[in-house]
Design goal:
CATH architecture: 3-Layer(aba) Sandwich
Structural class: alpha+beta
Number of helices: 9
Distance between the termini: 18 Å
Number of domains: 1
């Protein structure tokens, strides 16, 4: 990967802003024709590491965690749907939607990295959760995603059953130790850090500075 721009994206698969941020970054990279000069790696961050196995209704969750009213949640979801459409991504929010545990998803994203399919799996999981109303804490759903991107389900299941939690936890703690408290956080060449979903022009300026 010598000479490439290294981009680390700290994110969670149930984070809508992570979808928007990545899609805008992707457009910036495409507009500048830098696809062959970019190395992207997704780094784990669990927004709700202690959430119960059954998950939590998203409206109740946003009320409990951020104090958002029902109207606030509906307005937020409507805004995300609009921004997603602008970036070519479909958000399909629904009344029974739940926030779920994402530890296994991060374990499998680390597995996919070994085969150069991490971004493909990340987008598949974003789509599963936000577009297809699927539970990305369910191992059947996760292994279906693994199969869909052409990786070995049995190997993936073996990793999950052998419990790779510790390594993922260590990596999450590392990013938190750098002061990262929210996602997406995008780091360029370990030097430039952007928090939240930025505009396409902002990403372009960073990339142009790094390639000039």
């Amino acid at each position: 990967m010598s000479g490439k721009i290294k981009i680390d994206i700290v994110s969670d698969v149930v984070c809508p802003w992570c979808v928007i941020g990545y899609k805008r970054l992707e457009r910036a990279i495409s507009d500048l024709k830098l696809e062959e000069k970019i190395q992207i790696q997704w780094k784990p961050f669990e927004l709700n590491p202690n959430i119960s196995k059954d998950g939590e209704n998203i409206t109740k969750h946003l009320n409990r965690k951020y104090g958002m009213s029902v109207d606030d949640v509906e307005n937020f979801q409507s805004n995300m749907t609009k921004m997603g459409k602008e970036e070519g991504f479909k958000f399909d929010h629904f009344t029974e939607m739940k926030i779920v545990n994402t530890r296994d998803a991060h374990i499998l994203l680390d597995f996919a990295k070994e085969y150069g399919k991490q971004t493909e799996l990340k987008m598949r999981l974003f789509e599963s959760f936000f577009t297809e109303r699927k539970d990305v804490s369910n191992r059947i759903i996760l292994l279906d995603a693994i199969k869909e991107i052409g990786l070995d389900e049995e190997k993936a299941l073996l990793i999950l059953e052998n419990d790779a939690n510790l390594e993922i936890q260590k990596e999450e703690e590392y990013w938190k130790s750098l002061g990262i408290k929210g996602v997406p956080t995008i780091m360029f060449n370990d030097a430039v850090t952007l928090n939240g979903a930025q505009s396409i022009d902002t990403y372009k300026k960073i990339l142009e500075n790094l390639t000039s």
